[in-house]
Design brief:
The chain is mainly β. 12% of the residues lie in helices and 39% in strands. It has helices at residues 103-116, 147-157, 255-268, 270-274, 356-362, and strands spanning 3-7, 10-14, 20-26, 31-38, 52-55, 64-73, 78-85, 94-95, 98-100, 125-129, 139-141, 145-146, 161-165, 168-172, 182-184, 189-196, 204-212, 218-222, 228-229, 240-244, 278-284, 307-312, 315-327, 332-338, 378-383, 386-391, 394-400, 410-416. Helix 1 (103-116) packs antiparallel against helix 2 (147-157). It is globular and about 75 Å long. Mean pLDDT is 76; it is low at 341-375 and 401-410.
């Protein structure tokens, strides 16, 4: 059912004559709806910006509200409507400065600020579903920011996935499950695209530091050698990622310190900027939604975060579902996105859990990691999936998390060396 609302509690009517309605959701990024409606339809005149559409986002979750932000009327008699999930309203909720060192404290701050900013009476409440594996991490908000940006900060500090349900936003340590679903060409796959894109890949890290020396003169310090290789594979081209470490050291560092920080950055971000990983876009048929396969109720049950086996075009591997496309009228998934696609270069993990954009713009000492201003004694890369650094007697270990180790997010563990 596709319903049109003038306000969240005021129903206009049901869009039963809708031509097409599709919801696309990608983990931690987009959650939007597109709809086509006849220009002579019963509610054509009511389909205008600021109105709300309510429908299911996938076969399994309850109906969600989507706010219309764009309407296009074409000469062929079709109205195209574009709407964004209600959670996008969090981009308009401003949070005031605060600090803490636990995930619970950050969630409490988000909840109180969301309620304080609830000018449309949404009263968003963020519920964190965590299982005790989260360690403490210092965080500080020095200037006003939005609720959505704070949620992004959480996903970087504690590496999780958000799931939105109208006025609720839940932070999952591990969203999804392995339901034993197998996607096979000729069985439940109608189209398959394997995409290997190295346009955003880098071969080396080029670290540098800019600041004042002991005499107050402005200097720029480089490493020697200038670059640190990302991964163990030698490439036929050279493309360095320029890493500004000015916010990592209060005083002028030596070459060895820059190299250690660069090695740490290269190891943590190998899967996002160094590895040649295929992302898959798969058009599917949910057999349980067909007359012939009605008995296969859960055979093709796929949700975001699920681990899926895929066999097509000579490929046989396991991937994590990072997005879905849902045909609202047909009540079935039409496509799933598999892999771990990087949405923005600012999502990279810096040695101090700080984004490249923040380093470039603020160049302040990072304070969201208790070891941010410490220089490791050594960095040991056990494999492309595990790296650890020694800070005195403190051992910090990062381990890749995800099927086939292709999830570039890393879990961090702090312990005392034996």
């Amino acid at each position: 059912m596709i319903e049109l609302y003038s306000a969240l509690d005021t129903l206009i009517g049901t869009l039963s004559d809708c031509i097409r309605c599709e919801v696309t959701e990608e983990a931690n990024t987009s959650f939007e709806l597109t709809l086509e409606y006849p220009v002579n339809g019963a509610y054509a005149d009511s389909l205008i910006v600021e109105k709300w559409i309510k429908c299911k986002p996938n076969p399994y979750d309850t109906a969600q509200f989507f706010r219309i932000y764009r309407v296009s009327r074409a000469i062929d008699g079709i109205i195209s409507v574009y709407a964004e999930h209600i959670s996008y309203m969090l981009n308009n909720f401003v949070c005031r400065a605060a600090s803490g060192n636990t995930i619970a404290a950050l969630i409490q701050h988000i909840n109180s600020e969301a309620a304080y900013n609830s000018v449309f009476n949404q009263g968003y409440t963020v519920v964190c579903n965590y299982d005790g594996t989260y360690s403490n991490a210092d965080w500080e908000i020095k200037q006003p920011t939005t609720v959505r940006e704070l949620m992004s900060l959480m996903s970087k500090l504690w590496v999780g996935t958000w799931k939105f349900n109208n006025g609720w936003a839940t932070f999952y340590y591990s969203r999804g499950a392995n339901r034993g679903v197998a996607l096979q060409y000729g069985v439940n796959i109608t189209d398959f695209v394997a995409d290997i894109d190295i346009s955003g890949n880098y071969t080396h890290v080029f670290p540098y530091w800019t600041g004042n020396d002991e005499n107050g003169n402005e200097v720029t310090v480089y490493a020697n050698p200038l670059c640190v290789q990302i991964g163990s594979t030698a490439h036929g081209y050279y493309k360095p990622y320029i890493l500004n470490l000015s916010g990592q050291f209060e005083t002028e560092p030596d070459s060895a310190s820059l190299i250690l920080k660069a090695q740490e950055f290269a190891a943590l971000n190998y899967w996002s900027i160094g590895a040649e990983i295929a992302d898959y876009s798969v058009d599917v048929i949910q057999r349980g939604k067909t007359l012939e396969g009605a008995y296969l109720t859960d055979a093709d049950h796929v949700e975001i975060g699920d681990t899926v086996q895929i066999t097509a075009m000579g490929v046989s591997t396991t991937r994590q579902c990072i997005g879905t496309k849902y045909d609202v009228i047909g009540d079935r998934l039409t496509a799933v996105m598999l892999g771990k696609k990087q949405s923005s270069i600012t999502d990279l993990v810096t040695p101090a859990n700080k984004s490249k954009a923040e380093e470039t713009e603020t160049q302040e000492t990072a304070e969201d990691d208790p070891l941010a201003d410490k220089i490791p004694n050594s960095v040991v890369k056990v494999s492309d999936n595990e790296v650890y650094a020694m800070y005195g007697t403190t051992k910090v270990t990062w381990t890749a998390d995800g099927s086939d180790n292709e999830r570039h997010n890393f879990k961090k563990k702090v312990s005392e060396a034996e």
